[in-house]
Amino acid sequence: MRKKATRVALLSAGLLLSTTSLAAMSPITECNDCSSQAAQETAKAQQSDSVYVVDFVNRTAQKFVTDDKGTTLLAKLSVGELNHLNQEFNHRKVYLRAVTP
Fold first, then answer.
1. What are the extents of the domains in the chain?
2. Architecture label for domain 26-98
3. Which of 41, 56, 59, 63 is deepest in the core (most CB within 10 A)?
4. Is the predicted pLDDT of residue 43 greater than 80, yes or no?
5. Where in the sequence is the signal peptide annotated (predicted)?
6. Cβ neighbours around 62 below 10 Å, total
7. For the residues 56-79, what does the mean pLDDT come to?
8. Is the separation of the CB atoms in 39 and 53 below 8 Å?
9. pLDDT-based confidence at 98, cuts 50/70/90?
10. Is the pLDDT reported for residue 20 higher than 50?
11. Torsion of CA 86, 28, 58, 38, to 10 degrees
12. What is the mean pLDDT of residues 55-79?
């Protein structure tokens, strides 16, 4: 009985932490079948320091970061960030891949 209670507590804590980290992610926007320039413009329109742009047609995900001067650049997407994006859009049955800068 005690083992079962411990497992339930650990599982609950894991689910709570995973949903908290998803909620803390930067804004995510869609730009389906668009060029790299269009994806960058879409990221600029979000007016955030960091924006994820997903393309379900080409199955890609990109991360754009805006520096202090207002320049929006393509940044490297970490494995953890890519996993979070794929989990968030799991209902689409599409596995996104990262675009390298």
1. 26-98
2. 2-Layer Sandwich (3.30)
3. 63
4. yes
5. 1-23
6. 23
7. 93
8. yes
9. very high
10. no
11. -160
12. 93
